[in-house]
Amino acid sequence: MFDRSIVAETEGESSTGRVGDWFRHEYGRLVAMLCYRFGPQHLEDIEDAVMQALARQLAGSSSQNSSETLLPDDLSRWLYRVACNGFLDTARARKRHAEILEQQTVAWLPGMTEGMADLDHIVHQDPDPNFENELENGQLYMLFACCDARVPELSQLMLALNILCGFEVKDISQRLFLTTANVYKRLGRAKALLREVRFSPAALSTESYGKRLPQVLRILYLMFTEGHLSIRSEYSVRKDFCVDALQLTGMLCRHPVGKLPECFALMSLMCFQFARLDARNDADGGLLLLEEQDRRRWNRALIQQGMKWLADSASGEHFSRYHAEASIAAEHALAPSYEATRWDRIVKSYELLEASQPSAVHRLNRALALAEAEGPDKALILLNDLQPPGWLQASYMWSAVRADLLRRTGAREEAKRAGQAAMDLAPTDAIRQALARRLQVNR
Amino acid sequence: MSAQEFLCTMIRTEGHECVQGSEASPAQMEEMFAKFNQWKETFEANLVDIGGRLGEGKRITPDGVLDGPFTEVKEILGGFMIISADSIEEAVAITQQCPPVAASGTRVDVRPIHRG
Description:
The structure holds 2 protein chains of 2 kinds.
Chain A: H1 4-11, H2 16-38, H3 43-62, H4 72-93, H5 97-104, H6 119-124, H7 131-146, H8 153-164, H9 169-175, H10 180-195, H11 206-228, H12 239-254, H13 261-275, H14 300-313, H15 321-334, H16 343-356, H17 360-374, H18 376-384, H19 390-393, H20 396-409, H21 412-425, H22 429-440
Helix pairs in contact in A: 1-2, 2-3, 2-7, 3-4, 7-8, 8-10, 8-11, 9-10, 11-12, 11-13, 12-13, 13-14, 13-15, 14-15, 15-16, 16-17, 17-18, 17-20, 18-20, 20-21, 21-22
Chain B: H1 3-10, H2 26-44, H3 88-97, H4 99-104
C-alpha cells in the first residue's frame, strides 16, 4: 500500500501535491507492470518492493544521488529494475523462486517461450523495447484484472483506486465517505481474490478482454462520477478521481482492446464534464446552478477534444448509455447560454438513455429537460407516471425536482411542502444553499 | 498547478492532434457534432416507447457510491437492442443473427419488457 507519509517527510507538505501525485502514479504503474510480468498472486510482495524502490529514490534524491538526474523515462526504468530485483530477492528468500520459475514456463510472461526457464535471464532481458508500451500494457492488464466478477463493484473501484491510482486507504475512505476500517476490509478481501488469479495475460485476447470491457467502462465511469459528484463530500469536487479516470480511459481508447465506440463515447463524456467542472463552484466553494455558471470558465480546448471523441464514437449498431450521456453533455457544452440550450435534443437523448438503461434517475433528469423544452406541466405528467422506488423518495432529488416543477406550474402549497422536504433531505450545506436559490427564485 | 497545463499532457490521443493553440471554430465543432447527431437519429427512429412500470433496480451497495440502482438491462458491449418478437425463443434467434453479436462472441441476455 502506498505510504504517503514518506513523501511528506522528505519533501515537505507544501510540495506534496504535485510530488505526491507523481509518486502515486509511479507506484500504480510499477505495481501494475510487475503484476503483469509475474502475476497478481505476488501482489503483496510486489507492493512492498515498489514502495521500497520509491523510498530509495526519495532518499537518494535528498542526498544528491545520481538517480536524481535521470530523465523521467529512465527514472521509471531505474525504479522498475530496483523494484524487480527487490521483489525477486524476497521471492528467493521465501523460497518461491522455484514456483515463479515454473510459472514462467507457462508463458505467463508475454512473448516468452517454454525454453526460458532461467529466472535471471528473464529478469535481465529487457522488457518490451518500448518501455512506455509495456507500462501501458501493465496498467491496462491491472485495470481489467480489478474488474473481477467475484469482487463487489464498490470493491472493484477501490482496487483500481488503490493499486492503479496509488490512493491510500485514508484518501479512499474520505472520498467515498466510508470508514477506513470498511475500506481495509473490502480491499483485503478483494486483493485476496485478486491473488487467486483468474485473469492472466496468457489468456489475453480481444475476446477475454472484451468480456470484461463493460465492467471496466463501468468502473471508470464510477471513478469519474465519484470525483464529479458533489453530494457525498464537503468539497464539491474531488478532481483527482476525475483526472485519473480521464487518464485511464484515454489509455484504454488508444489501445486495440479499447478502440470501440462506447469507449470513445465515455471519453467524450468525461472531457465535457471535466471541462465544465471549475465553473460549478463559486468563490466560497459553494455550488452554482447551471444557469448561474460563468461559461467563459469552461475549458474550450477540452470541449473540443470531447467533440472529436464524440465524432469518433458515432459508428456501429449500438447506441450505448455513454453515447446518450455524452450527447447530453455535448449540448450543454456547446450552448452559449442556459436559455439557448437545445433542450429538445437533450430530451431525445434522455429518452434514448432511458431506453438503454431504464432508471428512475434518468426519468427524473428527462423530466427536467422536458420542462425546459415543453413546459413544467408535461414534465409533471411524466413524473406522475413514475412510481419512485423507496431509495429515490428518500433522496432530496425527488422532492427537489417535484418542488421546482410544482412551483413553475403555480401549485404553491404543494411546491412549498416538497421544497421543505428537499431542504431537509439535502446532504450538504452547499446543496441546500443552491436548492434554496433555485426553489425560491420567482420566474 | 494550473488545470490547463495538466490537461494537455494527459489527453494524448492517437489520431487526434492535441491542439494547443489552434482552436476549432464554433462552426467546426457543430460540424463534428452534426456527424454524431445524424448517426444518433437513426436510433431515435427506432425508439420503442417504454411506458411500462420501472422495476426496483439492483442497488449497487447500501453504503454505495452511486445515485441509485439501475434495472438490469444488459448491454451488448455497451450497446443495446430492442426488438419485437413473438416469443423469447424467436428473440434469441434474431439476436444471434445480428452481425456484431455473432462476430464478437459476447454473451447477450434477452429480457422481456413488461407492460401494464
